[in-house]
């Protein structure tokens, strides 16, 4: 499918009255598509909210359109949301320890690159803590410096090991021996649809 077909397919999966952050709706998106303003239409649909979770196929079409338009930031974000639709959403408020207290000296990249270990309360057979891997997306900023605080999204490698989490639970992030950061869970949502076979760039 070409870019227009992909964006049209995505827009048809969102209710017509679904608002974006700037109060425009899916109906408004069609006006941009009709005038070949594809990047604007894609950016608007990235911000859809308020009508419940959007399906896996919506985010797949969006990600493939972003790839065709060579919009790297949008491509990464839409594949991230595709993965969340399959595995569930976990958002938290993360505070990193200051550089003087950990080995980290550089900021954490924001766009889902880092895959640290997390203590979410699971136990190993010997009774000690069992750490779990989850990718980390920092919201509304390109990076999070040591000592900084931000809202983050977590994408577990094994989602079933995180199902017990609830808002206000406290979890810790680990990159070496000392705790690297502490996070308070803000939101936990189940998958939109049952897991599907891996498609395209979704988990790369």
Task: Describe, in plain words, how this protein is organized in 3D.
The protein is α+β, with helices and mostly antiparallel strands. It has two domains: 3-86; 88-189, Translation factors (Elongation Factor Tu (Ef-tu), domain 3), CATH 2.40.30.10. It is built from five helices and eight strands. The chain has helices spanning 3-12, 26-34, 38-46, 56-68, 72-87; strands spanning 89-96, 108-109, 117-119, 132-138, 143-144, 149-156, 170-174, 179-189. The strands form two sheets. It has a six-stranded antiparallel beta barrel. Helix 1 (3-12) runs parallel beside helix 3 (38-46) and helix 4 runs antiparallel to helix 5. The longest helix has 16 residues, at 72-87. It is elongated and about 60 Å long. The chain starts with a helix and ends in a 15-residue tail after the last strand.
Low-pLDDT runs of 5+ residues are 196-204
Largest sheet: 6 strands, antiparallel, barrel
Q: Please work out how many helical segments DSSP would assign.
A: 5
Average residue pLDDT = 86
| Cα distance spanning the termini | 22 Å
Helix content: 25-40%
CATH class category of the largest domain: Mainly Beta
The CATH superfamily of the largest domain is identified as: Translation factors
Structural class: alpha+beta
Total strands:
8
- Which of globular, elongated, flat, extended, rod-shaped describes the shape? elongated
User: What's the structural domain tally?
Assistant: 2
Order of helices and strands: HHHHHEEEEEEEE
Largest sheet strand order: 1-6-4-3-7-8
Provide the CATH architecture of the largest domain: Beta Barrel
Strand content: 15-25%
* CATH fold category name of the largest domain: Elongation Factor Tu (Ef-tu), domain 3
Question: Radius of gyration from the CA trace?
Answer: 18 Å
């Amino acid at each position: 499918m070409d870019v227009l077909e992909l964006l049209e397919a995505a827009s048809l999966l969102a209710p017509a009255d679904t608002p974006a952050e700037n109060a425009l709706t899916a109906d408004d998106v069609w006006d941009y598509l009709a005038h070949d303003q594809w990047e604007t239409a894609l950016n608007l649909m990235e911000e859809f909210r308020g009508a419940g979770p959007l399906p896996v196929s919506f985010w797949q079409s969006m990600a493939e359109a972003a790839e065709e338009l060579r919009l790297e930031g949008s491509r990464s974000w839409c594949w991230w949301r595709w993965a969340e639709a399959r595995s569930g959403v976990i958002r938290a408020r993360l505070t990193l320890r200051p550089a003087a207290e950990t080995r980290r000296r550089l900021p954490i990249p924001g766009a889902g690159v880092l895959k640290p270990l997390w203590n979410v309360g699971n136990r190993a057979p010997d009774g000690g803590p069992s750490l779990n891997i989850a990718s980390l997306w920092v919201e509304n900023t390109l990076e999070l410096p040591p000592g900084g605080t931000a809202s983050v999204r977590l994408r577990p490698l094994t989602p079933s090991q995180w199902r017990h989490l609830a808002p206000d639970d406290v979890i810790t992030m680990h990159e070496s021996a000392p705790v690297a950061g502490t996070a308070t869970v803000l939101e936990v949502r189940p998958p939109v649809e049952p897991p599907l076979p891996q498609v395209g760039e979704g988990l790369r």
